[in-house]
Automatic annotation (TrEMBL):
InterPro entries: 4_helix_cytokine-like_core (IPR009079), Somatotropin/Prolactin (IPR001400), Somatotropin_CS (IPR018116). GO terms for molecular function: hormone activity. This is Prolactin. Gene3D superfamilies: 1.20.1250.10.
Amino acid sequence: MSCCKLRKKFFVSICKREELTYLILKLLQAWKEPLSRFNQHIESLQELPGESLSKAKQISNMVHELESGVEKVTEKMQSMGIISNSLHGMASSEAAGLSISNEANVMSDSDFIHCFRRDSNKVQSYLKILKCRIMPENSC
């Protein structure tokens, strides 16, 4: 069973800003360790061009920066009363059952990249939805 199918049931119902913000954070956090392992794996491949390795590291850095940004936005929304403080203390991906590092160990590189792309698209969509729920006047 792929990582994408394992988490599918978790994303069925999204109705509140808090839940949406939580899902975004959990997806980003769940990918930190698998991306780190993937980078280590591709570093060991002799035939891989340096450009590919650089791109993989860039993606990992972008995920980390995006997670930091979402955490800052979450704090700001909490301070403005847009969302409650119910997200406070929910920092580990294991708390949501979203750890994918075991599945990532047995996946092919193409399956891994496929799942990462799907989750990246989900994060992008969820961020757009969250923006529209917070600021509906922004032509949503």
